[in-house]
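Appendix B. Chain record.
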Amino acid sequence: MARGGGQNWSSGNPDYRPEEQATGEKMVKETQYYDILGVKPSASPEEIKKAYRKLALKYHPDKNPDEGEKFKLISQAYEVLSDPKKRDIYDQGGEQAIKEGGSGSPSFSSPMDIFDMFFGGGGRMARERRGKNVVHQLSVTLEDLYNGVTKKLALQKNVICEKCEGVGGKKGSVEKCPVCKGRGMQIHIQQIGPGMVQQIQTVCIECKGQGERINPKDRCESCSGAKVIREKKIIEVHVEKGMKDGQKILFHGEGDQEPELEPGDVIIVLDQKDHSVFQRRGHDLIMKMKIQLSEALCGFKKMIKTLDDRVLIITSKSVPSSPEAFRLS
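Structure tokens predicted for this chain:
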């Protein structure tokens, strides 16, 4: 029997289940990692991926140099919650269970490795052979994904300085950093307990990780010794019909340039805006329609405008006993 005050109707997937039929909230020991990503403990893997994608792009050190600790926490939360086994351990025992799951100490991956693997840039070894990837989020509508669209996007990227040809200064002025011996990293030994020491590797403060230094008076006037300069680039992004929220579009070799390294890539990540009428589920479009009690009892005829401006008509003559689903093609 139809319920008074309106009835929910769905168009699209016949297996659609209204949100009000969902089960109760998932019970977990603690919610810190979920809170960091801004999702509920019952969040699906796709919801966790989407949350990480948005936060990682927002708080990446290249965009927010002062948010390094927040970026690290976001990466740790995603590393745990994206792994079914680690997530199960965390749900049952919290962060302490994760720390005790290995050798008694947390074994988190590098935040940059997690970021690069997520956005298709490989890990640390790939970064050592190639310049940085430029990752940019492109906002698109559901209509854009349904019909396809071409958008122009302005990006900033590093290019080799033409004046010094990527040397950073006058020829012969570059010398190996005496502090880190050209490694770009410094090793510090820290005692963490009786008979226990920890080896910490940090970026060399003297050369800022370059492994070399240039006398200020000999530095290139164009790039100030950085070897690269920032340049604006306009690219055309072709969003094909049927692409999905979170899908990546790759522009090979169009990313940051660094001396003696292969240029990185430009990676465009599609970010779909919420639609006022339709929700996407796989290849289907789902919509809810509220009808009056009289329409539920006597039947109705409704027109639906699609994302490509077609008009579809749905009709119902029978009296439904529960929410009814229509599949239209």
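Further analysis of this model is presented in Appendix C.
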